[in-house]
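Example record

The entry below shows one chain as it appears in the dataset: sequence first, then structure tokens.
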Amino acid sequence: MSVISLSEAQQVIDAGLAQADSAGVLLSISVVDPRGDLIAMARMDGALWRTPPLSRGKALASACFGRSSGEMTDNSQAPFMRALMEQLDGNFIPGQGALPIFRDGVLVGAAGGSGGTSLEDEDAVRAGIESAGLSASA
């Protein structure tokens, strides 16, 4: 299994936080591998205490399906999605703010943000992914 490296994950986080800072948003950003295991996470000074687990939960959802966590919001109450949320102790969050990470068309992880609006979270992780020379789509 191909996995995002720690160096790449840190690039995603650094660029994402820089984009959030320029937008005046206080975020946490988490990067996970394709299985949803945490590679790296950072919380900006002043970001709310709850943002780290929320950013990771969105990233986990994105990694599980290889697509934007926001694409899952409409189906979040479906029995299958509710079962996943229960099975993963509430750590699976199918809400906008995370994107999958692909290298050469292969899913290598996902990045999730929390602290701004859902769109601000997603915009920050998209900026981070692109800055690292990776893609949010296969």
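Notes for this example: The radius of gyration is 13 Å. The chain has a mean pLDDT of 94.
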